Every structure is written in C-alpha cells, then in structure tokens.
C-alpha cells in the first residue's frame, strides 16, 4: 500500500503552531488565520454564533443568506429541550441572485413577518452570513422595524465576517444575548443562592445533571447559557448571584460583561471528570460561604463518588497504558480531558484545539507528559502524522476526524456535537470510560 | 413534540423553512472527488469549506478532503486572487494532487473574482492541472453545483484527438452514491462496452479499510480518461439536471453525440439505458442482465398487492424524483406529493433544461394519478401537504424523519443526505438490482408497520 505523501510534510508557516513538550522553549502560536490552501478543520464566525445561540429553544433562528449556511446547521447538535422544539427547525432567507444584486432587506422583512405569523414567539435571532456583510444589508434597521411591528424582540447577530474564526462568532452571540437579557426596568431583584450556568449547551442533557447536583446542595440554577434555555428564563438572567462558566472559550466575554453591567461575579469551573467536578462544586459552595451547603455538598460528593468509583476502577484496569490523541474545539475541554484520561489510566500523547487560547495552552503544557505533541488548528495530515508517530490507540475529536481515525485503524470517540451520552459530572465520567472502552475493546480492530 | 408545522396553507415569499436542498459548492466538491487524485478546492472563506466537508463526511462516513482559500477581510475588498494563487502554490507543494478542482462560493462570486484569469496567471507545476467551476449558491442547488463542476471537467480536459470516434461510451451518472456508480460500471462491463464514467466517486468515498490513510484513494476517473471523453462515440447523461449540461458541452466541444436519459431506477428507465447502448454499439443484451430483469419483474408480480393504491410522498433531488415517480407508479403506488428543493428550470445557469413540475405531472397524468408537484419547495410545504392529504409512505433523505415521526408514517430513506443510517452509499438503487433493493426497502417499511399496528387477532405469520 502506498504511504501517504503527507507523512513528513508540515507547512512551514505552521511550524510555530506545533510544539513537543520538553523539546522547545518557544511558545505556541495560536489564534492565527489559517493558511490559504490549507485543509483547515476550522469553522466560521456564523458557526460559532449559531452553536452558542441555537439551544435557545423557543426562538426563531433565522439565517440571512443563501441556503447552504442554514442547511448545514439544521439540527446538527444534540442540544436537548424540556420545552419548545422550535429551535430544531431550519429557517433561511434563501437569498437568490436578485437579492444579492438589489439587497436582501425586503426579503428578510417578509421572512420575519411570515415566520412570526406561523410560529408565535417572543424572540427572533437573525444571523448575518458573510455575503450579507458584502452586499451591505442593514440588519440592525430591519430588525428594529420588525421588532416594533410585532412587539417582540428581533435581535441581529453580527456573525458575518470571514476573517474571524469561531471565537469571533462566540462574541457575536454573547452580544446578542446581552441585548436579550437586558432588564426592561432598572435592575431585576437579585435572588440569593442562584447561579447562571454559562457555556453548557445541554448536549445529551448535560445541563440537567448539573442542575440536579446544584439543587441537592441548595443552589438554584437560574438559567443556563444556553442549553435548554428559553425567553422567559433568559429575561431573568440578571437576577442570579453568581455566574459559573463551563466553556470559557465561548462565554468568558459574556461573564465579564455581566459583571460590569450587573455586578454578577463569575467563576470558571469544569464538570468534566471526578477531580474537576468535585473541585468546581467546592469552589461554588465556598463562594456562598454557607456551612450547611458545605455539609450537603460533602455528603453528595461521597455519595456520588462511591457510586461511580468501582465502575471507574474496573475500566481503569482494562484501559491502563492506552494512548490517546485529543483534537477538540476549545482549550478548557482539552484540559479537562487530560485529567479525565488520567483517572482511567490513559496517557495523552497528542493534544490540539481549534480555538484554544494562550493561557489554556500553557496549562496544557504543564499538565501533559514529556514528549506530548501540542498543536493549534491542526490539519488532517498533521493529525495523521502525529497519531501514527506517537502510536495513539484512540482519537477524541469531532465529526470530520472520525473517519480519519477509523481509516488508520484507530478507535474514536466524539467529544463534540455528535456525542450521544452526557459526559458531565460523575455519571459523565463513567459514560466517558464506557465509550472509550466500547471503541477500544471492540473486536473489529482485529480485522484491520 | 417536533410537530411545529401548521396545517393551514399560506403563501410564503420570505425564504425557506426546512430546506430540501443545499448549496452549489457541496455538489461541486462531490463531483470533484470523482476524479482520481483530485483535491477539491473551495475558493472562499474557510467556514463554507468546513461545512461542505462535514456534510459529505456525515453522509459517506469517509474522510473528505478539500482545501480552502481561507478568505480574510482583505479579500472582500481587493478580491481573492492573491489568496487563490497562494493556495494553488501551497496545495501542490504540500498535498501534491494530480489535479485541483476549484469551485467558488457565494462570497467569491459576489466579490466577482475572475477565476479563469487568476488560474491562467497562477504558478502551476509542470504536469499538474487546475480546473474550475463557478458555483454561486444563490442560484440552483447542490445539483446545479454538481452539474457545473462536471461541465468544468469537459471545458478544461476533454479533447477530440482522433479522426474517428472510438468504440467507447461516456456515462455521466449524476449525483448518486458510489454504490450506484459501481453498479453502472458493472452493467457496462457485462455488456462488454468500454466505458468512461465521470465523475466516478466509487473507490474514493467508499474506499476499503487498509489500516492506512490515503489522501487520494484508488478510485476516481483517471485524468487521461477525462481527456479521452472527447474521442468517445456517445455520451449518455443520466439525469437532465445533474448531467445533461456536461454532455451537451461535450457535444459542442468535441462532437460527441449526447443522449439524455432518466436516472436508471426501475425496469423502464433501466431498459431505456440498455436499449440506447445496444442501438449504438454492436452488442446484445447479455443473458446475465436478461436474467436480472426477469428476476425483478418476478419480484414485482410477487409483491404487487402490497403496493397497489398506496399513497406516497417523495422528495429529493430532481433527477431521482423523476425516476422514482416512474418507478413507484410501475408498482401501482400513487405518488400524490412530489417535491424537490432544486428550482424548476435549468441545470446550469440560464439554460432551461427541463421543467420539473411539467415532467412529473405528465407521468402522473399518464397513470391517471392526481398529485401535487413542486420544484424549489421546502419540507414545510411537504409537511403541510401531507397534513392536508395523508400518505401511507414517505420516501426521502434523512430530514424526512421529522415529518414521518410527526405524522406517524413509514419512511424509506433515499437520496442525499442520509445522516442517521449507514451502508446506504455502498449499495445501488439503480438498475434491475437496485430496483430489487428498493422494493425490499419499501415493502419492509410497509410490512413492518402492518405488523406493528396489527391487533393480536390480525397478526399474521405469512404476508
Ligand atoms: S455562503 Fe454560500 S457557499 Fe458558503 S455555505 Fe453559505 S450558501 Fe454555501
Ligand atoms: S458564508 Fe460565511 S457564514 Fe456562511 S458558511 Fe461560509 S464562512 Fe460561514
């Protein structure tokens, strides 16, 4: 069989985006634009914005642009809802040639009118795609007029912009959310012992797990940004006494703004893995300074840990010594995964993210063993090269990486939108171990 | 729970709810994957490319490679020429394909990049090829994109070099699965006719597991064969929307006569393909194919009572809809709702190749079945139709599952994309064999439902 021609080739311009722990002193360059002609795994501003806002369940999510941008984002994430399913439909202005030439504002206005008539709702998000930026539609004006006409909120999401990556889209989404949560009167009355939970999209019902833990220790989850959220709940977001952030990449900006505007303090946490889950819950409880809560929490930790420990030990015995490669979206997830894999005896030999930030890469560098390859915005040939070189048995990635891993005879788990089991909290740790074992221990690899 | 669609019909002009199509570049990317050693290239921002690859990956469950010009803010002001030139250089240095097939996106189209000029003035290594197609998504659909890229292959590569045409046929399969392309090649091989199938994604997006990753798998139409299409005696375009443009272009450019046929689904359309071939080439219908046809007809008679009078709704790509309408009619079913997301007239820009609604209506009228037909429709339309006039079966791509669930109707997955089931891309729906598979799928769906719904006293062993 012919070896891939790519085995030894890495773009020159990309050399600064790859390091091996222990070898170089230099810092990793991240957040640079992808190289022209590269098979980049990166997504766009709109994608980032859509990912963040999509789980608002009772909103009309209207994509202003040609059809594709809407088609590809139709219900592709497993964000679960306990109420409305409206967000799972796909709405597009489906711009045609004449709209591109004469402008799409009129069509957009008609689309909003029609959709609001078909689906009574309180909030419409209108997403700008790249082309809208170029043809110069005034989204702000159309949305304002529609809002006045229908007496509901019609919020433009400025997600046009091809220069940026997903991170710019997160910010556009946060700006839209800030507009939405702005209290109509002065300030909503704050409620004691309530938190907003930022950066969890309720994939496979993950928000519900955390909500339940918090409830058990006497903390009310006010609203999650944005998993299983809806208009009314978001409108009360400013009443929370604390913001906790799971996915900092997408939500740190929102938290900072909410601190400035509404004096709500925030805290980064992670509910991935036993170690991080316990530590995070402790920090949340500490910030409330309530001894009773503390007691409740310690009981919960003992209870939950004893439930999962034997199972995890069983898995660790079987998985000990396996090597994993990780390629995920954000830095926080990568960090948690390293720790989580350690809990089940797996070494991380390669780790990369699409949008990790400088601080996160530093933490990663401190966490991993000597010789681990760290890379930013990897292309498939780099992933292949380092997985093979480092002898990875397992790849953790997203939809585009799955078949690549399989082709190499490497096991795979999805830690992205396509995950089917919740990976948060104590049950999540077990689910992860189970998923890892399911793929690693499958007999199919014998036939490769 | 997912049933948000109201029953009452209203005129809509503000866009699409739940699309039954996607954008041109995806089709162009898929067509380009059907050339051996080709790296598709998306001239636009990285987001589009990422989405197209993701969508194809989900359908085929294979790694889909494509590069992007990675537009930056500057490109929207100064044009993307510099990006494309850098991209061409980088692609050949690093990924080393034989050929690079560039398609545009909405963005580069709106900016107005002049691709032929950019490509002509780019540094292309000796012996390597760059082709292109314009694929603005604000026209047509992924089917238009497929058609445009296939036509691009003819524009750039086909050459008439021989005095007399060779005893070989070009076949353009249309936007179908690699399983279908393999099946078409199998038939032509049995008939003993030398064939150039293009594009040919078999062996590319259904390549076998070897434990090694090959960026350019073994399949795909060879470059030299694409050049040689200009010397063939005949081009058969399967499907007027996805394939006719390229065939007609080949006729204009290299005087290869073009015949446009229906996608060969079912007895009649497959017969037509075979008849066309035996009329043009001195061959007989091989016993093997005669036997397969006989088996199919046998199966149809064995099972016809399951199908007769059953109402069906079908949605998907126009060529497949035309063929499927004819096929389900041949089984005695009533396709009362037929819808495609692709706009009605024309494969490529400006050329009115067909009129979808008229063609389907003719088929329905001939069979005496009144039905609703729409081109450029969406799944909201279809769902409303079904609410107003229920059906016994729904046939379409994965997105149909919402309607099937809401209305509790049996559902057969067919077309692109299928995101929630596997193996579909490996097996054919074309030819006699493919029709057998379709009959199995349809009758299983209907009979599984009958079993599920039967009261104990009506539950039967033999059906
Ligand atoms: S911008 Fe155009 S090419 Fe890109 S995904 Fe949207 S519709 Fe498709
Ligand atoms: S046009 Fe822009 S917004 Fe749409 S998919 Fe492409 S990069 Fe994303």
UniProtKB/TrEMBL annotation, chain A:
Designated name of the protein: Nitrogenase iron-molybdenum cofactor biosynthesis protein NifE
Organism: Desulforamulus aeronauticus DSM 10349
PROSITE patterns: NITROGENASE_1_1 (PS00699), NITROGENASE_1_2 (PS00090)
Family from the record: Belongs to the NifD/NifK/NifE/NifN family.
Presence of the UniProt keyword S-adenosyl-L-methionine in the record: no
Keyword Phosphoprotein among record annotations: no
Limits of the Nitrogenase/oxidoreductase component domain: 44-440
Reported function: This protein may play a role in the biosynthesis of the prosthetic group of nitrogenase (FeMo cofactor).
Superkingdom assignment: Bacteria
InterPro entries noted in UniProt: Nase/OxRdtase_comp1, Nase_comp1_CS, NifE, NifE-like
This protein's pathway: Cofactor biosynthesis; Fe-Mo cofactor biosynthesis
Sorted UniProt keywords: Nitrogen fixation
Gene3D superfamilies, sorted: Nitrogenase MoFe cofactor biosynthesis protein NifE, C-terminal, Nitrogenase molybdenum iron protein domain
Lineage, highest ranks first: Bacteria, Bacillati, Bacillota, Clostridia, Eubacteriales
SUPFAM superfamilies for this protein: Helical backbone' metal receptor (SSF53807)
GO BP terms, alphabetized: protein-containing complex assembly
GO molecular function: nitrogenase activity
Coiled coil segments of this chain: none
TrEMBL record, chain B:
Pfam families associated with the record: Oxidored_nitro (PF00148)
Alphabetized GO MF terms: ATP binding; iron-sulfur cluster binding; metal ion binding; nitrogenase activity
Cofactor notes: Binds 1 [8Fe-7S] cluster per heterodimer.
CC cofactor: [8Fe-7S] cluster
EC number per UniProt: 1.18.6.1
Catalytic function, reaction form: N2 + 8 reduced [2Fe-2S]-[ferredoxin] + 16 ATP + 16 H2O = H2 + 8 oxidized [2Fe-2S]-[ferredoxin] + 2 NH4(+) + 16 ADP + 16 phosphate + 6 H(+)
This protein's UniProt keywords: ATP-binding, Iron, Iron-sulfur, Metal-binding, Nitrogen fixation, Nucleotide-binding, Oxidoreductase
Cellular component GO terms, alphabetical: molybdenum-iron nitrogenase complex
Domain Nitrogenase/oxidoreductase component: 23-446
Record function comment: This molybdenum-iron protein is part of the nitrogenase complex that catalyzes the key enzymatic reactions in nitrogen fixation.
Protein family membership: Belongs to the NifD/NifK/NifE/NifN family.
Subunit record text: Tetramer of two alpha and two beta chains. Forms complex with the iron protein (nitrogenase component 2).
PANTHER family named among the record's database cross-references: LIGHT-INDEPENDENT PROTOCHLOROPHYLLIDE REDUCTASE SUBUNIT B
Protein name: Nitrogenase molybdenum-iron protein beta chain
């Amino acid at each position: 069989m012919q070896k891939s021609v790519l085995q030894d080739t890495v773009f020159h311009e990309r050399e600064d985006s790859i390091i091996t722990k222990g070898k170089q002193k230099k810092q990793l360059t991240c957040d640079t634009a992808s190289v022209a002609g590269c098979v980049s795994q990166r997504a766009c501003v709109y994608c980032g914005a859509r990912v963040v806002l999509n789980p608002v369940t009772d909103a009309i999510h209207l994509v202003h642009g040609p059809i594709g941008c809407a088609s590809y984002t139709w219900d592709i994430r497993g964000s679960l809802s306990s109420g409305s399913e409206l967000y799972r439909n796909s709405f597009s202005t489906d711009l045609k040639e004449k709209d591109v030439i004469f402008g799409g504002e009129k069509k957009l206005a008609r689309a909003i009118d029609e959709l609001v008539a078909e689906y009574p709702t309180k909030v419409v998000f209108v997403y700008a795609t790249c082309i809208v930026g170029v043809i110069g539609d005034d989204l702000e004006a159309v949305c304002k007029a529609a809002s006045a006409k229908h007496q509901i909120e019609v919020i433009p999401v400025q997600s046009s912009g091809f220069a940026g990556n997903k991170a710019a889209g997160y910010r556009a989404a946060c700006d839209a959310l800030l507009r939405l949560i702005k209290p109509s009167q002065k300030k909503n009355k704050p409620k004691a012992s309530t938190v907003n939970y930022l950066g969890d999209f309720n994939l496979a019902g993950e928000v519900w797990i955390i909500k339940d833990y918090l409830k058990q220790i006497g903390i009310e989850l006010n609203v999650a940004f944005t998993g299983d959220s809806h208009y009314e709940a978001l409108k009360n977001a400013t009443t929370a006494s604390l913001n906790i952030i799971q996915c900092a990449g997408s939500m740190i900006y929102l938290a900072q703004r909410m601190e400035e505007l509404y004096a709500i303090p925030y805290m980064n946490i992670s509910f991935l893995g036993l170690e991080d889950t316990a530590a995070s819950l402790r920090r949340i409880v500490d910030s409330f300074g309530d001894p009773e809560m503390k007691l409740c929490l310690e009981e919960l930790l003992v209870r939950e840990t004893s439930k999962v420990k034997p199972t995890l030990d069983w898995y660790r015995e079987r998985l000990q010594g396996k090597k994993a490669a990780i390629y995920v979206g954000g830095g926080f997830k990568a960090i948690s995964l390293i720790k989580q894999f350690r809990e089940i005896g797996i070494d991380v030999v390669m780790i990369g993210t699409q949008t990790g930030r400088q601080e996160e890469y530093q933490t990663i560098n401190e966490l991993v063993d000597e010789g681990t390859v760290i890379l930013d915005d990897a292309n498939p040939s780099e992933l292949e090269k380092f997985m093979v070189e480092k002898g990875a048995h397992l790849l953790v990635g997203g939809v585009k990486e799955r078949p690549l891993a399989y082709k190499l005879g490497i096991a795979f788990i999805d830690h992205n939108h396509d995950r089917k089991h919740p990976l948060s909290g104590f049950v999540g740790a077990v689910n992860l171990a189970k998923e890892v074992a399911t793929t690693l221990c499958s007999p199919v690899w014998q036939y490769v | 729970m997912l049933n948000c669609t109201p029953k009452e019909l209203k005129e809509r002009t503000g866009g699409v709810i739940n699309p039954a199509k996607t954008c041109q570049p995806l089709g162009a990317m898929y067509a380009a994957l059907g050339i051996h050693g080709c790296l598709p290239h998306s001239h636009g921002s990285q987001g589009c490319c990422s989405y197209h690859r993701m969508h194809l990956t989900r359908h085929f469950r294979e790694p889909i490679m494509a590069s992007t010009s990675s537009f930056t803010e500057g490109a929207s002001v100064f044009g993307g020429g510099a990006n494309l030139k850098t991209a061409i250089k980088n692609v050949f240095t690093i990924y080393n394909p034989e050929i690079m097939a560039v398609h545009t996106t909405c963005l580069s189209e709106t900016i107005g990049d002049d691709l032929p000029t950019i490509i002509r003035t780019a540094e292309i290594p000796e012996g390597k090829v760059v082709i292109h197609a314009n694929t603005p998504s604000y026209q047509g659909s992924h089917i238009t994109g497929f058609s445009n890229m296939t036509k691009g292959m003819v524009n750039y590569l086909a050459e008439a070099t021989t005095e007399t045409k060779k005893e070989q046929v070009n076949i353009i399969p249309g936007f179908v699965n690699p399983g279908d392309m393999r099946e078409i090649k199998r038939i032509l091989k049995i008939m003993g006719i030398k064939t150039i199938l293009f594009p040919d994604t078999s062996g590319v997006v259904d390549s076998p597991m070897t434990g090694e990753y090959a960026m350019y798998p073994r399949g795909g139409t060879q470059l030299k064969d694409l050049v040689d299409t200009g010397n063939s005696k005949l081009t058969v375009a399967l499907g007027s929307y996805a394939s006719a443009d390229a065939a007609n272009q080949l006729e204009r450019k290299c005087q290869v006569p073009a015949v446009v046929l229906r996608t060969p689904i079912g007895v009649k359309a497959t017969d037509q393909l075979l008849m066309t071939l035996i009329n043009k080439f001195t061959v007989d219908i091989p016993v093997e194919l005669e036997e397969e046809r006989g088996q199919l007809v046998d199966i149809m008679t064995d099972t016809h009572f399951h199908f007769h009078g059953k109402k069906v709704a079908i949605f998907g790509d126009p060529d497949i809809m035309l063929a499927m309408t004819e096929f389900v009619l041949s089984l005695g079913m009533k396709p009362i709702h037929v819808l495609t997301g692709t706009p009605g007239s024309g494969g490529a820009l400006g050329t009115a190749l067909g009129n979808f609604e008229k063609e389907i209506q003719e088929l329905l009228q001939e069979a005496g079945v009144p039905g609703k037909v729409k081109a450029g429709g969406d799944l909201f339309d279809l769902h409303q139709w079904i609410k107003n006039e229920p059906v016994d079966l729904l046939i379409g791509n994965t997105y149909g599952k919402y309607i099937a669930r809401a209305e509790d109707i049996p559902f057969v997955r067919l077309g692109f994309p299928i995101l929630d089931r596997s193996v579909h891309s490996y097996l054919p729906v074309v030819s006699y064999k493919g029709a057998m598979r379709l009959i199995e799928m349809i009758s299983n769906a209907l009979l599984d439902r009958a079993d599920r719904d039967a009261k104990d006293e009506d539950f039967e062993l033999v059906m």
